[in-house]
Amino acid sequence: MEQLMRNFFLFLSKNKTLTKLAKKYGFKFGASRFVAGVDIDHASRKIKEINEDGFVVTVDHLGEFIDNEQEARESADECIHAIKTIDEKGLKSEMSLKLTSMGLDISEELVMENLRKILEAGKKHNVTVTIDMEDYERCEKTLDIFKELRKEYENVGTVLQAYLYRTEEDLQDLNEFDPYLRLVKGAYKESAEVAFPDKKDVDENYKKLIKLNLLNRNYTAIGTHDDDIIDYVKQLEKEHNLSRDQFEFQMLFGIRIELQNKLLNEGYKMRVYVPYGDDWFGYNMRRLAERPANVMFVLKGIFKK
Ligand code: FDA
Questions:
Q1: In the prediction, which pLDDT does 30 show?
Q2: Which residue has a Cα nearest atom 26 of ligand 1?
Q3: pLDDT tens digit string along 69-112?
Q4: Cα 37 to ligand 1 centroid, rounded to whole Å
Q5: Local structure of residue 65 (DSSP, 8 states)
Q6: Is the CB of 221 under 6 A from ligand 1?
Q7: Which protein residue has the closest C-alpha to ligand 1 atom 35?
Q8: Which long-range contacts (CB under 8 A, 24 or more apart) does 105-111 make?
C-alpha cells in the first residue's frame, strides 16, 4: 500500500498540468508546511528566524519543467537576486539549485553560462552553491558540469545519491576535486538496473559512502532525517576522532524539527534546506512520496484555507 502511495505521489510530482494549475491558484494545500514562501522576501524572513534559532540554511528557488531558454535565464536571474539578498540581509545561507531549472535539457552552453553567472555572484557575495542531483538520466551530465566548474570555482558543491550502484565509483572519482559533497539516499523513482531496489541495501550503501568520504577527509554534508544514519555518523565521529568542522547534518525545512533541534543542542552544525517559489507542487509531492503519512498535514492545509 505504502509503495503504491509513493508511486502515486511521484507520478503527481511529474504532472505538468497539475504543476501549472498549482502555480496559477497560488500557495495552497499545505504548501507552507514544506515551502518557506512564494518569493525571496518571504523566504528571507523565515531564514532570519531559522538563523536566530542557531541553524544555517541552504536556500532553493523551486523551478519545475523549465523547457525554454527565457525561463532558464529568469531562473538564473532569480538565483542571483537571492544571493544578493542573502548578503544584504546578512543571512547565514548557502544556495542549492537544480540544473534542469538552469536549462540542462535545453543546451549545455546555456546551463554553463547560467551557472557561471550564479557562481560569480556567489563568489562576490560569499555564497556557496550546491548543485542538487536529479534523476539517473541526468547524473553523468551533472557530474561532468560539476567537475568543469570546480576547476574554476571554490564555491561549488554537488550531491551524490546512495541508491545508485554507480555512486561509490563517482565518489572516489570526485576525490581529486576536493569536493564539497552532500550525501543523500536519493528521491527519484529509478529502475533496478541502476539503483538498489531494497531500502536495506540503500541504507548500507549510504553508510559505506559516508564513511569513505569522511575518511577521505572531504567535507561531508549528511542530508537525512534517519535516526539510524545519524547514530552511525556519531559513532564514526567517536571511532575516528573526527572534527565537527569536517561534516554537517542537513534536513529539509518542516521535517523532523525536534530532531533538528536535538542535533543543534548537541553542538552539531545543522543546515536546513529551505525551498521557496510559486513552483511548489512537484517538490511537495516528492515529500509526500517519502512519507505518505504527511498527507494529513496537506489535508489540514486544504481545509484550513
Ligand atoms: P528515510 O526516507 O529512510 O526516512 C527515515 C526517517 O526519516 C523516516 O522513518 C521518517 O521518520 C523521517 N522522514 C523521512 N522523510 C520524511 C518526510 N518527508 N516527512 C517526515 N518525516 C520524514 N534527493 C535527491 O535525489 N537529490 C538531492 O539533491 C537531494 N537533496 C537533499 C537535500 C537535503 C538537505 C535532504 C535532507 C534531502 C535531499 N534529498 C535529495 C532527498 C533524499 O534523497 C531523501 O529522499 C530524503 O532525505 C528521505 O530520506 P531519509 O534519508 O530522510 O531517510
A1: 61
A2: 133
A3: 999 999 999 999 999 999 999 999 999 999 999 999 999 999 99
A4: 21
A5: -
A6: no
A7: 223
A8: 105/66, 105/67, 106/67, 106/68, 106/69, 106/72, 107/69, 108/141, 108/145, 110/69, 110/72, 110/73, 111/72, 111/145
User: Using a 6 Å cutoff on CB, does residue 282 contact ligand 1?
Assistant: no
Look up the pTM and report it. Answer: 0.92
182 tagged catalytic? yes
Is the CB of residue 43 less than 8 Å from the CB of residue 37? yes
Catalytic residue among 60, 150, 170, 182: 182
So what's the pLDDT on residue 305?
35
Q: Whose CA is nearest to atom 43 of ligand 1?
A: 186
- Give CA–CA dist 217/246, Å, rounded: 7
Q: What is the pLDDT of residues 169-212, one digit of tens each?
A: 999 999 999 999 999 999 888 999 999 999 999 999 999 999 99
Task: Find the DSSP H helices in 62-216.
Answer: 69-88, 108-125, 139-152, 167-174, 199-215
The better pLDDT of the pair 31, 67 is held by: 67
Length reported for the chain: 305
Which residue out of 60, 132, 170, 203 is catalytically annotated? 132
- d(CA 127, ligand 1 centre) in Å: 24
Which residues on adjacent β-strands are paired with residue 289?
Answer: none
Q: Does residue 304 surpass a pLDDT of 50?
A: no
Q: In whole angstroms, what is the distance from residue 137 CA to residue 145 CA?
A: 14
Instruction: Output the CA 124–ligand 1 centroid distance in Å.
Output: 32
Please tell me the residue having the least CA distance from ligand 1 atom 31: 223
Give the cell for residue 52.
536566530
